[in-house]
């Protein structure tokens, strides 16, 4: 509220069963709460009418309208009449407009129910979200079946466009981040290894770390933030623009049309990007090893290749493949379930990234345990 | 042409979950009609259209289109109904990643056996029909709001539908574009015999194009009036309808 509140622009008095409210001079930015309580106090006696009697009222704003409105509302509840005859016509019109109820909301309720009801509602919401997600996965499998049996309406140009977006256009950022991660990994490792005089093993550390898991994880995080969120935002905006409705009413499968091209593109691109990330991470490690620690170039790469194991590399690629599925499905699902306003698109985008990252960690945990058990 | 019901709505209730927007609606849309669904904001006009087009299920009751109950019919029948229906959404709902021609070609590629070159020609023809000749290779972001609606209409007409639905066609258009779109709707109705269902609260459109109508009332959640809009103006059944049709005049 405005800081310069009008000091005391309203006089209130009671006389022979009538309360007189006298606004005078300028009633601007006036806090009516005290006066309202005062008037309410007077009404506890034998009061039949509240009369507003302006005295040289020159300027007024919504604060006076609010007082009149509140007084009238309170008076109605207590069966007291309100006389506004002497008040300015435009003020009376505004109060009448505020009372002219067009329609009462009936579905909006602040009553959230008891704890049990809330728990029930939340459980029901979780169950319904779970079944929706299952329906979506089922629909994707059916879509895949249609694609493999050449009955899909997937447009190959959409697939190429999605592949271009998550392939060549992502090369630079994936290369840079992987190079830096390899560099950091080498730095952190070499500090410890130097204490044993075993700094040459930094090459093994970086190679194993990047190929086994770090390359795939870094690519996953980059692609979840870059591509998964873009899927959610694009499809969410299509929801806002009624394009999804148009697809549905034209009889096109949203899965074939929107999900399959993106899913296939990401599933194809992720393993390749993971390979690139592995290599760039090793280059980052070599940068530290050769230029900062002073290890011989040939020796660094000899140790790096010695540490390279095909099973580590394949486990990393498999991670990339799984992450591709997760990112594409989370992005598309969040877009398809997006609301119909701008805010919802933001929420869908955030959700897609958070869900992708969470599921990537979960899948990494599962793959790690399985690999441990089968001795890979 | 007229007289035969192509849309038959029986005891229809429209809403979302527990929230009912409209109860027990009964009406018919005859072949060749320009049928207006009108009413104030929030009365359920657009939701009614979403039910008619199968985007949301009815809470209760039946919607028969060309004799097929869209709530219970198998997917194959629903698909046939969709092929014979076109919809123009408020925003045009053109696919932004495609050119105007590609937008129109999409349903043709899916549902017709024409060769690629014929499909391209049909797309150009449909664009020309709505006054967008030569705009084939433009993207939706490169044209104005009115042109987007015209392109959306061209896409809606791609498969020569029996019924075309319009959701607030005048929304966001200047008076001239709005008038031109009304003329276009009438022209399509006259020349192709297409049944038109328009959801709107634009009075000028209602009186210009409407041959039959229903008036939905948010307060009572019912169809408050039905008939030719001009006749309703002459003999309004109640104050609410009169006020609506006269832009708030009191009787």
How are the SSEs placed, and which strands pair?
The complex is a heterodimer of chains A (376) and B (251).
Chain A: E1 10-15, E2 18-27, H1 33-42, E3 49-52, E4 55-60, H2 62-77, E5 81-83, H3 89-99, H4 115-148, H5 156-166, H6 171-194, H7 202-240, H8 243-249, H9 254-292, H10 297-307, H11 310-336, H12 342-374
Parallel strand pairs in A: 2-3, 2-4, 3-5
Antiparallel strand pairs in A: 1-2
Chain B: E1 5-16, E2 19-30, E3 34-39, H1 45-52, E4 60-65, E5 68-69, H2 75-83, E6 85-88, H3 100-111, H4 116-129, H5 145-156, E7 163-167, H6 175-192, E8 195-199, H7 203-209, E9 212-217, E10 222-226, H8 229-234, H9 239-245
Parallel strand pairs in B: 3-8, 3-9, 6-7, 7-8
Antiparallel strand pairs in B: 1-2, 1-4, 4-5, 9-10
Brief summary:
By secondary structure, chain A is of the alpha/beta class. Chain A contains 12 helices and 5 strands. In chain A, strands 1, 2, 3, 4 and 5 form a 5-stranded mixed sheet that branches.
> What's the number of extended β-strand segments of chain B?
10
Q: What Rg of chain B, in angstroms, do the CA atoms define?
A: 18 Å
Helix fraction of chain A by DSSP (H/I, runs of at least 4): 55-70%
| Sheet/helix structural class of chain B | alpha/beta
How many helices of chain A? The count is 12
Number of domains of chain A: 2
Low-confidence stretches of chain A: none
- Taking all residues together, what is the mean pLDDT of chain A? 91
Given as residue ranges, the uncertain stretches of chain B (5+ residues, pLDDT < 50) are none
